[in-house]
Each structure stands twice: as C-alpha cells, then as structure tokens.
Design a protein that fits this description.
Elements: H1 6-9, H2 13-28, H3 32-38, E1 43-52, E2 58-69, E3 75-82, H4 87-103, E4 109-116, H5 124-138, E5 147-151, H6 157-171, H7 192-211, E6 219-223, H8 227-238, E7 242-248, E8 251-254, H9 261-271, E9 281-283, E10 295-298, E11 317-319, H10 328-336, E12 340-342, H11 344-347, H12 350-364, H13 370-395, H14 399-418
Parallel strand pairs: 3-4, 3-5, 6-7, 6-10, 10-11, 11-12
Antiparallel strand pairs: 1-2, 2-4, 7-8, 8-9
C-alpha cells in the first residue's frame, strides 16, 4: 500500500542530510574514521507514551529525541508536533542543528525532537498532558548542561513553559535553562520571537550587497506565513522590499503591486489562512516558488525545491528560512543557473543564536536589553555569512557546501582534539 505520509514519499530527508555532509567532507578531505563518526547520530531515544484524552480514553503517541553530536557543547534543537514526523526526519534535523550551531560558532551540539501527532486535533488540556508526559519520557537526556529543547513546528512558548515546569517539578526547583523560547515572564529572552526572521534578513543584507541587488524595491515571494515568514515579510517591507506573494498550508496569494504584511497578518488571524485576502490572486504552494521575483524565502517545510522545479525558479536569491527546503540535486541546478542560495544552516540560524543568548541569561540570572540582543545577533550573522562566502569563493563551491565546510571543520576539530573515549 502506498504511504499516505508526504514526508515519507518525498526524497528521504536523512539521505539528503548525509549527502550534504558527504560533499563537505570530500571537499575537506576529512579522515575516513572521522567521517564515520560525524555521519550518524550519537544518541537516539524513541518513546511510546500514553495520554488520557478529554473523553477518558487513552491514546499512545510516539516521540523521538535525537542527539547528533555534542563535542562542542550541549545538544540544542527544537521539538516539533506533526502528524508526519519520522525518525529519519528527526535524525536529519539533529544533524543540521550540529552544523547550524557550528556555522555561527556558538558552543552547542545538535539535537532535535518530535512527536507524531496533529496538535490541531487536541484540546489545550490534551496538548498540555501530551507535552508533560513527553517531557518526562525524554528527561533522561535533557537538561541545561546536556540537551536544551526549543520550539519548532507546531510548538510555541506555552509548550516550552510546560516542558520547563515539568522538568523543574521532577528536580524540585526551577530550572529555566532546560529549554529556550520560553515566555519572558519565566526566563525567556527579548527578541527571541523575531530572531529567526531577523537573522535571515541580516543574511539577506549581506547577500544583496554581495550581488548588488538592493533590498529597497526588490520583489519578495514567501512560502510559509508562520512566525518566521510573517516577521520576515514585516522586516523586509520596512527595508522597502515589495512582498508580492505569501502562502500558508492552505494556499497562497499574489499581487504584483505588493501586499501589506500587516493587513495580511490581520486577515490570517481572523480567517485562519491568508487565502481569500482581498485584492490578491490565488496561487498554490508549488507555484509560489516559481514566481517572477528577486528574492524567494522558503519558510515552510522540507523538500520544496527539487530537481523538478529548480529549473523554473526565477528568484536571484533564495533565503532558506525553513530547514531543508532544497534537495542536493536542486542545489546544483540553482548554482549552475547563477541563483544565490543562502543555506538554511546559515540563513535561519538567528533563532538558535538568540536561544543561546536566552540560555546564557538564564544561567547567569542576568537579562539583556533587546537592543543588545539584536546588535549581538547582527554581529554573529554577519561574521558567519562572511566566513561562508569566503569559503565558497576560495573553493568554488555553492554556499551550502561552503557552510557545511565551515561547520564540519569546526566540529571535526573539536572531536579530534577531544579524542575517542576510551
């Protein structure tokens, strides 16, 4: 029987992540033994746990927490709730987190977690019960010095608050540093909500200068109008860019004269989708990738730009606010066509960077101003972009392989210096 899971039917995301690593390892002429170490996750935990539903019956859910590498520090990575979560998906995302933390040079390794569930079908009480039981099940792995979860697809600050409280109740005292992305009132950081989008826009500033494509007047198409996509639209509109198209899981809207992000967000808040926004044409999530524009921002799910549609991408810059939106085959096609891709492990690293700031603040019980956070983020993103672009130019490789080369070299060095135990 054919799978009804679209993630499973797409190119295997774990194979994609490994192929991207292999390309960088080959360029770096990495030691074969070290390649074998870094090519697989260090720890994988699968949990099957019961939750009592509102009507009294018991459902059993499956979840994962995977740590790819912790040579440079505690594992760091989000928790996603989605009906199409797979173990291979979580493996890939954990590996990407290792490289993402390394490319911006923050002292973390990579981890990721997920639960196979459609949270839209749960009540708030059921969602809390699932979160607290899942946290309990993965508690042997997590902790502020070991593995620090964060929000991801279909999880938010409230979910992180429940996770922090559950972990703290087990220990008998408050441990805010066990998760990031928390509400401000219980140890969250200013600027965290906007961090992923803001970091992406900082990299777009760098790319626009590199390619001499001014952001002011640039036409932007955004696939995925969630947190990252909608905030990126606001920030880019403030820079004078013209947001010509946006989409969410239900479909997209398109207007060559531009869309007002504030009005689109208000419409979505009222109607639950951007679809039907007045004065805009309908466009599918597939078509939105191929529109005539200068900047394309994939901010949805994985495997959106493939070998099939890459030849039709018209944007000059692709800024990957999502994780894994482009397959390796598509990467090469875009590079050969002169499309400049800002890879996910660089482009959307603003989120984990400000998560790092949040963790530092929690550990010190000393909190920063938002201006300090944004200035520090800007500095880190600029430095990371410059390192990756220099690697790309030096080795004549596309930006993703260059980003992997920067990141893999850092993780390989840490792993080599620490040695193999015992």
């Amino acid at each position: 029987m054919a799978s009804s899971n679209p993630v499973a039917e797409a190119p295997n995301i774990w194979a994609v992540a490994q192929a991207q690593f292999d390309a960088a390892a080959e360029q770096l002429d990495l030691d074969p033994g070290l390649r074998r170490v870094l090519r697989v996750p260090q720890r994988e935990l699968t949990v099957n746990f019961p939750v009592t539903m509102d009507d009294g019956h018991v459902e059993v859910f499956t979840g994962y927490r995977i740590q790819h590498n912790v040579s440079r520090g505690p594992a760091k990575g989000g928790i996603r709730y989605h009906q199409d979560v797979t173990r291979d998906e979580v493996r890939a995302l954990s590996m990407w987190m290792t490289w993402k933390c390394a490319v911006v040079n923050i002292p973390y390794g990579g981890g990721k977690g997920g639960v196979i569930v459609d949270p839209k079908k749960l009540s708030m009480r059921e969602l809390e019960g699932l979160t607290r039981r899942f946290t309990t099940e993965i508690s042997p792995l997590i902790g502020p010095d070991r593995d620090i979860p964060a929000p991801d697809v279909n999880t938010n600050a409230q979910v992180m608050a429940w996770m922090m409280d559950t972990f703290s109740m087990h220990r008998g005292y408050t441990i805010p540093g066990v998760v990031t992305g928390k509400p401000i009132a219980i140890g969250g950081s200013l600027g965290r909500n906007e961090a992923t989008a803001r970091g992406a826009v900082y990299t777009l500033h760098q790319a626009s200068r590199t390619l001499d494509i001014p952001l002011a007047g640039a036409r932007v198409s955004i696939q995925g109008y969630g947190n990252a996509g909608s905030i990126a639209a606001d920030l880019l509109a403030d820079e004078g860019a013209v947001i010509v198209a946006v989409s969410d899981s239900s479909g997209g809207i398109y207007n060559t004269k531009g869309l007002d992000p504030a009005r689109v967000s208000a419409w979505k808040a009222e109607h639950g989708t951007v679809v039907g926004f007045p004065g805009a044409d309908s466009v599918s999530n597939t078509e939105i990738l191929e529109l005539d524009c200068e900047i394309l921002v994939p901010a949805a799910l994985e495997n959106q730009i493939t070998a099939q549609n890459a030849p039709r991408i018209q944007a000059r810059i692709v800024a990957e606010a999502a994780n894994g939106p482009t397959t390796p085959e598509a990467d090469q096609i875009l590079y050969d066509r002169g499309v400049f891709v800002i890879p996910d492990i660089l482009c959307n690293a603003g989120g984990v960077t400000v998560s790092y700031f949040e963790w530092v603040q929690d550990m010190q019980s000393f909190f920063w101003t938002e201006s300090r956070i944004n200035e520090s983020l800007h500095e880190i993103m600029d430095r990371a972009f410059e390192s990756v672009h220099a690697m790309s130019e030096r080795h004549s490789v596309h930006m993703r392989t260059a980003a992997y080369m920067v990141a893999v070299a850092r993780v390989a060095e840490a792993t080599t210096l620490r040695g193999l135990y015992p």
